[in-house]
UniProtKB/TrEMBL annotation:
InterPro entries per record: LysR-type_TF_proteobact-type, LysR_HTH_N, LysR_subst-bd, WH-like_DNA-bd_sf, WH_DNA-bd_sf
Superkingdom, natural source: Bacteria
Species classification: Bacteria, Pseudomonadati, Pseudomonadota, Alphaproteobacteria, Hyphomicrobiales
GO BP terms: DNA-templated transcription
A molecular function GO annotation: DNA-binding transcription factor activity
Domain HTH lysR-type: 5-62
Stated name of the protein: DNA-binding transcriptional LysR family regulator
Organism this protein belongs to: Methylorubrum thiocyanatum
Record keywords, A-Z: DNA-binding, Transcription, Transcription regulation
Gene3D superfamilies hit by this protein: Periplasmic binding protein-like II, Winged helix-like DNA-binding domain superfamily/Winged helix DNA-binding domain
Similarity annotation: Belongs to the LysR transcriptional regulatory family.
UniProt-listed PANTHER family: HTH-TYPE TRANSCRIPTIONAL REGULATOR (PTHR30537), HTH-TYPE TRANSCRIPTIONAL REGULATOR TRPI (PTHR30537:SF74)
Amino acid sequence: MRRLPPLHALQVFEVAARAGSYAQAGLELGLTHGAVSRQIAALETWLGQRLFVRVGRRMVATPAARAFAEEVSLSFDRLTTAAEACGRPQAPRVLRISAPATFAMRWLIPRLDSFHAARPGTEVRVTTTTTLQDALRGGFDLAIRRGPEPWPQHRAVPFLTEADTLVASPALLRDRPLTTLDDLEGHVLLGTETRPGDWSDWLAAAGAALPGGVRRRVFDHFFVTLQALEDGAGLGIGPFPVLDRMVAAGRLAAPFPEIRVDRAAYFALTPFDADKSPALTALIDWLVAEGAEPGLTIRR
C-alpha cells in the first residue's frame, strides 16, 4: 500500500505554489485564507519541512517546495488526462484567460464563437487587466500579454503582431478632413497614460513634428480613449489588427494607413506547472491560427 501525502493538502499546495499567494489560492479553490494555511501546515507536518517562508506580508514557496510543486503538477496533469480518457467526456471544461481589457473587448471576445464551435465542451472565461504589463499571478490557465518580457515561470507562444496608426471617427473626418499631415493643426490629440509614447512614435514615423495649435487630452486607460475617439472628441493612435473590426464597421477610420509603427507581439503565456490539458493546447493552437489570419485592409 502506497504511503501518500494527504491529497487535498497536495492540491492546495500546488495551487498556492503556482499562484504565489495563499489569498489567490483561496480564491481559486473557494477556501478561506485560514483553510489554505491549515492544509499547507498539514502537508509540512507530513513532509517534515517548511514549504513556505514569510517574505514581507506574503508567504513564498521555498526552492525545494517549488521543485516539489512542479512534480506534483505533472502528476496531476497525468491524472487529469487519464480521468478525461476514462471518465465523463461530456463534463464541461473551463479555461480561464487573463487579457488586457481593450484586447479582450476588441479582438479576443468577438472571435471566441469560432473556438466554442470547434470545442463545444469547453467554456472560456475571460478576466481583464488594465495594463499590458500587469503582474502574472495565479487564477488563470492562460494569460495574454505583449512582449517581449522575461517570463521565466511561463511558456510563451507568440501569436499576433501589432502596428499603430492614426485613427478618428468618420464623422470628425467628414467635418475636418485630413489629407496631409499639415491638416493635423488645430485638432485635439487624444492620448492614454498606459500608452505614453504613441503620438511621439507615430509622428517620428511620419517624419513630422508636433504641429502648432493642437490641444492634448489624456485618459487613464485606452478603452476610455477609444470611446472618446468614437464620439469624435479628437484624433488618436490605435493598434491594428485589434481595431480592424471597428474600421470595417465604419466606427473608426484610418486617414494615413501607410504610416504605421510596429509594436511588440502578443504572447500566450501558460505556467510551466499548469494543467496542460487537451483543451488548453487547443486554445493555444486556436490563438496562433487566428493571429495568422490576414487582417482587414485599413481604408481611409
